[in-house]
Specification:
The structure is a homodimer of 351-residue chains. Chain A is α/β, with parallel strands linked by helices. Chain A contains twelve helices and twelve strands. In chain A, strands 2-1-3-4-5-11 form a six-stranded parallel β-sheet, with helices on both faces. Chain A is elongated, with a radius of gyration of 26 Å. The interface between A and B is large, with 61 and 61 residues. The structure holds a DNA duplex (16 and 16 nucleotides).
Chain lengths: 351, 351
DNA sequence: TTGAAAGCGCTAACAG
DNA sequence: CTGTTAGCGCTTTCAA
C-alpha cells in the first residue's frame, strides 16, 4: 500500500495533450460557457474519472484566496447539545459552498486559544464559537482583522471596564425561558424556590440567575440567599454540589421546596445526589432544569425542563456567519432566540 | 469592521528590509540553527507580533506538500460516544503535529461519501471513519491511492464475494464483552434469554449477536428464535421496537425473562417502552445493554451494561493513523480492544 | 476554441 | 550571516 502521489491537473493535461487551463476550465464546469469543444470536454472528464483525479483544495484555496471554511469551536460533544446545534448548522451549510470545521476547547483556555489561532492560520472566513470567560483578548484579535465572529449559546458579559465586543451572537433567550420555568414552579404551588447554578461570568448564564430573582420578586416570594448556590464550575463539581445540598437541607433549618437549576446536566447530577441522600423528588423538593436534554424525558428520570432551541441556534449562527461573510461592513447580528416550550414532568408534580 | 487583508511574510520582510527567506527561517524557529543574528531575529519576531502576523497554512501546506490533517468522520455526536472517543484521540494528537478534523455522516450514504471526498481533496494524510454498510467502493478508493484508512468502532463484514478491505481497525472486542454480559444474566439466574439488536451488516455488530448465541449454546440454554429481534435500523425505530416487544410479550405465550440488548441507546428506548406497557424490570424481564453510556448509571435508570473502552478506541485509532503515516508500507493495524468491565445495576437484579 | 503565463504565500536549496 | 530563486497545484486573464 504505497502512497501514490495524487494526480494533478497538469498530469491530466499532459496525457491529453491539452493545456492545464483547458483542464481547469472543464473541471470547474465552465466548459460550455467558455466554448470548449464537446469532445475535449468529454475527454477531460473521462480522464479525470478514470485516474481518480481529486482537485487539490489547498492549491485551489491559495489561488482563489479563500478557504471556504467556517470554524466552529464548541465546548465539547457532551449531552447531545453539539449534536442538535450541528444538525441546525448543517441544514444551512450543507447546500452552500462553505464547510463547517468542528473543534472543541473542552473548557480549557489553552485549547480554546489554540483552536482559534488555528482558524486564523487556516484563513477561516468566519468563526462560530462557544465562548470561554476571560478570552476577550483573542476575540478582539478577530475583530481587529475583521473576521466575522459569532458567539454561540452564551456571550462574554458586558462589563463597564471592558470595551464591548462588537461580535455577533446566536443563543437562546434563556432569561425569558427562566420566567417560564420559575413561574411553572409557582403555578404548581411551590413557594420556597431556591436556585442551583454556576458561577460562570457569561452574559446569558448570569441573566438566568437574574431572571430567577426578578420572577420571585414579582410574585412577592422571598429570595432566600441561603437557597441560592452558585459554586465555581470545573474541578470536583459533584462533590461541591453534594456539599451545597447538605447545607441547604441540613436538619432544623427551613429548606427550599423547589429548585430552579441552571441546566439539565446539573439537574441530572443533582437528582442523583438527592437520591443518595433520600431526599424525595418532588415530595421534599421539586426540580426544574433548563434545556430538555434527550434523556430528561426518559421514564426513569422524567425531569421537568424548558426546551432549548438548539437546532434553531445552530441555524441562526450559521446564517449570521454567512451574512457577515457576504457583507463584512454589516453591524453585528444578534439573534436572541425565544424558546418557552415547557416540559412539565414528574420532578415538578403538584404538591 | 472591514476585512483587513492579512499580513504576509513578504510584508514583514519589506518593512524590515530583510528577505522573505530570513523571515521564514526565523518564524519557523530555525533562526539560531541558521545563524541569523540575534538582532535580526528579535526584529522579525517583534514585527510579527506587533502586526498580528498569522502564517498562512494554505500556502505552507501547498509548499510542504503535506496537510498535517487527519480526517475523522464520525456517525454523529449523540450519547457522548464521540465525546469519549475524541478525548482519547486528543490525548494522542494534541502533543503532535497532526490535527484531527471532525465531521459527521449522520448514517447517510451521501453525506458519508461527501465527507470522505472532502478528505481526499484536502489531502488528509489519514482518515479515521466510523463505517457505513455498502460503502466499500469509497473505501477501496482510499486503499487505491494509499491513504491510510482506519475503521473506528465497527468494520465492514468480511463476505466471500467482496475483496477484503485491507484497512486498519480500532474497536471494542465486543464479542468478548457480549460473553460477559450474557454470562452475567445466566449467573443472576435468568434462563430464557432473548436478544434485541439491529440488522446492521457490519462485522462487530454481527459478532455480538453470534457471541450471544454461542454463550447460550455453551450453557445448554435454549435459543428461542421468537425471542430474538433484529429490526432494520433507521426509520421509525421506536415504533418497530414497540411492535417487537408486543409480539414477544403477547399474553399466553412464554416470554423471555431477560434481554441482551445490542447497545445502551437501544436499551434506553426499550426501558421506556417497557415502562409504557407496565412490564416491570427486572421482575418481568431483566435488561442488559452494552456501552455504559454516561446516563445509564443514573439513579432513575440504573441500566446494567458493559463498559465500552471508547477513550482507548480513540487512542488506538489515532496511533494506528500515525503509524501508517510514518510507515505507509506497513500492514493494516487491527486493534481489537478488550473491555469486560461489567456494570451490574438494577435492571439485572437477581430474580 | 485553446494555450501561455502570471501569481496566490510560503519554504528550502543554493549562492554569495 | 543573508539574499535569490524555484516551485508546490491551481485559476484566470490575455493573446493567438
Amino acid at each position: 500500500m504505497t502512497i501514490r502521489p495524487p494526480v494533478t491537473s497538469a498530469m491530466l493535461a499532459n496525457q491529453l495533450g491539452v493545456s492545464r487551463a483547458t483542464v481547469s476550465i472543464v473541471l470547474n464546469g465552465h466548459g460550455p460557457k467558455r466554448k470548449i469543444s464537446p469532445t475535449t470536454i468529454q475527454r477531460v472528464l473521462d480522464a479525470a474519472r478514470d485516474q481518480g483525479y481529486a482537485p487539490n483544495r489547498t492549491a485551489r484555496n491559495l489561488r482563489l484566496q479563500r478557504s471556504g471554511v467556517i470554524g466552529v469551536v464548541l465546548a465539547d460533544f457532551r449531552m447531545d447539545w453539539a449534536e442538535r446545534v450541528m444538525r441546525g448548522m448543517g441544514e444551512v451549510f450543507d447546500p452552500g459552498e462553505y464547510t463547517p470545521l468542528v473543534a472543541t476547547h473542552r473548557w480549557d483556555a489553552v485549547r480554546h486559544r489554540k483552536e482559534l489561532m488555528a482558524a486564523l492560520q487556516r484563513r477561516d472566513e468566519a468563526v462560530i464559537v462557544q465562548p470561554l470567560p476571560g478570552q476577550e483578548a483573542v476575540y478582539q484579535q478577530f475583530m481587529a482583522v475583521g473576521i466575522p465572529l459569532v458567539f454561540l449559546g452564551d456571550r462574554p458579559p458586558i462589563t463597564p471596564t471592558s470595551t464591548p465586543l462588537a461580535a455577533s451572537f446566536a443563543g437562546w433567550d434563556s432569561a425569558a425561558a427562566t420566567r417560564t420555568a420559575v413561574r411553572h414552579l409557582i403555578d404548581r404551588g411551590y413557594r420556597r424556590i431556591g436556585h442551583l447554578g454556576f458561577h460562570h461570568p457569561m452574559h446569558m448564564t448570569q441573566e438566568r440567575t437574574a431572571a430567577y430573582r426578578r420572577v420571585l420578586a414579582e410574585a412577592n416570594l422571598p429570595v432566600n440567599e441561603a437557597w441560592i448556590s452558585l459554586p465555581h464550575a470545573g474541578g470536583a463539581v459533584e462533590g461541591t454540589i453534594a456539599t451545597e445540598i447538605a447545607r441547604m437541607f441540613a436538619p432544623g433549618i427551613e429548606h427550599p421546596d423547589a429548585l430552579f437549576v441552571l441546566n439539565d446536566g446539573l439537574a441530572l447530577q443533582l437528582l442523583d445526589i438527592l437520591d443518595q441522600r433520600d431526599i424525595r423528588v418532588p415530595q421534599d423538593v421539586a426540580i426544574i432544569g433548563m434545556g430538555d436534554l434527550p434523556l430528561t424525558g426518559h421514564s426513569g428520570i422524567s425531569l421537568s425542563t424548558v426546551r432549548e432551541p438548539c437546532e434553531e441556534m445552530g441555524r441562526a449562527a450559521a446564517h449570521a456567519a454567512l451574512s457577515l461573510i457576504a457583507e463584512p461592513e454589516r453591524a453585528p447580528i444578534v439573534s436572541l432566540i425565544p424558546g418557552n416550550e415547557l416540559r412539565a414532568r414528574r420532578t415538578t408534580a403538584p404538591v
